[in-house]
């Protein structure tokens, strides 16, 4: 399927009008929560038409209740633990540039060093420390394939978490001292995820509270 390519500026204008519902890869626009295929030309033209007032029918697939709870739980666990540190966490509203030309993503959660944060054009965070994605049926292929390759190429990134919403399962990609990556799959609620770079451990049981 071939779709129209648009400029980064048009993509940013669209995000400002409609909210953080879109990602951008090599000129193609994707729904944040349904990103297997780019948005088709006819709908994209409507989205880009400033004479049309956008409403919820244009917002694509919305996150499930489980997805929202997992993101909320993760933010609620991590936010207070970072209060007296140089790190901060952002919730679903931070564009990042992966370091690959024209690849702009919006992870579910981003942790960065507020004293060292760098932005491209004052918009795109270029040096996140930890990225977290909650998997959805329509996004898990991208999250587990394309985004792994993109995210792990970010120079400052130390951890990438993929959190299943259907079962207790977390993929933890971790950069080691040799600057290579290892990963483990965590399925036990009693385990804790060790985010060594930001000096905290996250309880798997607390992540899934109210979900599974």
UniProtKB/TrEMBL annotation:
Keywords: Endonuclease, Hydrolase, Nuclease
Highest taxon, organism lineage: Bacteria
Ranges where the Putative restriction endonuclease domain occurs: 62-197
InterPro entries registered for this protein in UniProt: Nuclease_put_TT1808, Restrct_endonuc-II-like, Uma2
Keyword Hydrolase among UniProt keywords: yes
GO MF annotation, one: endonuclease activity
Listed name of the protein: Endonuclease, Uma2 family (Restriction endonuclease fold)
Protein source organism: Thermoflexibacter ruber
